[in-house]
Design a protein that fits this description.
The protein is an alpha+beta fold. It is built from 13 helices and 8 strands. It has a domain at 2-110: Carboxypeptidase-like, regulatory domain (Immunoglobulin-like, Sandwich), CATH 2.60.40.1120. A hairpin with a 2-residue loop joins strand 5 (72-78) and strand 6. The protein is globular and about 70 Å long.
Length: 340
């Protein structure tokens, strides 16, 4: 599996020459039982197939060199703890782990400062408001904003300020700040599924936020939080289109707003091609092509890993038609040949 992940990294670059990121360190009190892995997501999310096993010596020492094209976010995984790292071409990092706890210490290296900062701001901190339904089920929009939305954005802005004040490169600042920004939007989008009894107020909140946010990523290649936002944006647009169609009392043979196709057509497409293909259609309409390419490739890989031949073929054919010169084309064709 490690060979497949490395192959993917080369395919993502085509014929270019990779720079490298060197990660080394030591696990104190290492028993030799727990694996050490680094996971570089395809767009976003965690998939075991993206894990790269890092060899660890009996004394706990480890070193790995990872080919990277541009900055990449990755998670270092040990004892079911995930530590986000920012991998940049030509840089190196030395860390320390301890089997007796779940902490990571950034010892040295040219990537030490930005990675220590990334860990310190706790990018994926689970917000308190998602753990208290008394906050997000309040039907009063003004009260909901005052109770948790504005305080949450204050925490977000505090993290952004710390990044801006840090002694790291402007490029690294943009990368990390973008992830903070999109992470906040993604956490708030979770309310769509959580606040079942307060959909009107939550819908208004998400509309206020997402309608003012460009789908063009702040930096590209973008990080996993951006791609999560892009995927959530497709859900937001689908809900927006349905709500507008209902308010206009549109008939089943009239075009749905934003999509430009009828309700009958959408139903037929869903039945014949599946929900992932509907999201592909939405992506081609609402997201930049480079983002659609990445998200669709991720879905193709997922369908392939699930051994869903029909879904893989449908998306693969649509992908190749839309992106005939994509760097992922050769890998997609290999996957199709394996399934046939």
């Amino acid at each position: 599996m490690k060979r497949l992940v490395i192959l993917f990294l080369f395919l993502a670059c085509g014929t270019c020459v990779f720079a490298q990121f060197k990660l080394s360190g030591k696990i104190n009190h290492y028993s030799g039982k727990e694996p050490l892995q680094i996971n570089i997501p395809i767009a976003y999310g965690y998939a075991e197939d993206n894990n790269i096993n890092i060899p660890v010596a009996k004394n706990g020492a480890f070193t790995i060199t990872i080919p990277v094209k541009g900055s990449k976010f990755a998670s270092l995984n040990f004892q079911r703890s995930f530590h986000w790292l920012l991998l940049s071409p030509g840089k190196n990092l030395t860390v320390a782990l301890d089997e007796s706890d779940k902490k990571i210490t950034f010892i040295s290296g040219t990537a030490q400062t930005e990675n220590a900062l990334l860990d310190n701001i706790n990018l994926e901190e689970y917000p308190a408001f998602l753990q208290d339904d008394r906050l997000y089920n309040n039907p009063d929009y003004t009260a909901m904003n005052a109770r948790f939305v504005k305080p949450y954005f204050a925490v977000r802005d505090s993290k952004i300020a710390r990044v801006n004040q840090a002694a790291i490169s402007p490029e690294d600042k943009k990368q990390i700040i973008a992830e903070i920004k999109y992470n906040a939007l993604n956490n708030l989008y979770e309310l769509v599924s959580l606040a079942s009894g307060n959909q009107a107020t939550v819908g208004r909140l998400i509309t206020d936020l997402f309608s003012k946010t460009s789908t063009k990523p702040d930096v590209f290649p973008a990080g996993p939080q951006y791609y999560t936002f892009a995927n959530n944006y497709l859900g937001y647009m689908a809900r927006k289109a349905i709500a507008q169609a209902k308010s206009q009392n549109l008939k089943h043979n009239q075009p749905i707003p934003y999509y430009g196709i009828t309700s009958d057509s959408l139903t037929a497409i869903s039945a014949k091609y599946g929900e992932p293909y509907l999201r592909f259609i939405g992506a081609t309409k609402f997201l930049p092509d480079a983002v659609t390419e990445q998200l669709t490739y991720k879905q193709i890989v997922h369908s392939f890993n699930e051994k869903n031949r029909v879904q893989t073929e449908i998306l693969a054919n649509a992908f190749i038609k839309k992106f005939p010169t994509s760097v992922y084309k050769a890998d997609i064709k290999k996957k199709l040949n394996i399934l046939r």
